[in-house]
Design brief:
Layout: H1 10-22, H2 28-44, H3 48-62, H4 71-78
């Protein structure tokens, strides 16, 4: 297993340790791995409302109602950043 070193404010580290203990994780590392897994999964999933907006934009383009969009325009409208 690989290692990743991060720097946290002392109070944030204490909060993470307290939550890991309260939720009966075997270690803080186990808790942090699960939290990171959940966050990465969340960030990779295209939310239904975003998917619908994207389908609408593709349909407009295919039907000639739009000349296209820049990545910046789509990013701003869809909130992908």
């Amino acid at each position: 297993m690989a290692s990743l070193t991060i720097k946290l404010p002392d109070d944030q580290k204490s909060e993470i340790e307290a939550v890991a203990e309260r939720k009966n994780y075997n270690s803080v590392s186990e808790y942090v791995r699960e939290a990171l897994r959940d966050k990465v999964e969340e960030d990779l999933v295209l939310r239904p409302e975003v998917a619908e907006k994207l389908r609408k934009r593709v349909k407009e383009y295919e039907e000639g109602e739009s000349e296209g969009y820049t990545l910046e325009e789509l990013d701003e409208e869809l909130g992908l950043s």
